[in-house]
Amino acid sequence: MFRKMTMISLNVYVKLIGILKWSMAKLLECNAYVFIS
Prior knowledge:
The chain has 1 helix and no strands. By secondary structure, the protein is mostly helical. The longest helix is centred in the middle third of the chain and has 35 residues.
């Protein structure tokens, strides 16, 4: 039971980090675009 919960929370954690990294990359992309133009 505990083992399964740990696996699930790890998956969620990894997904959240992936989303955060993606949104940060998008933000930087937009900022660079605005800065250049």
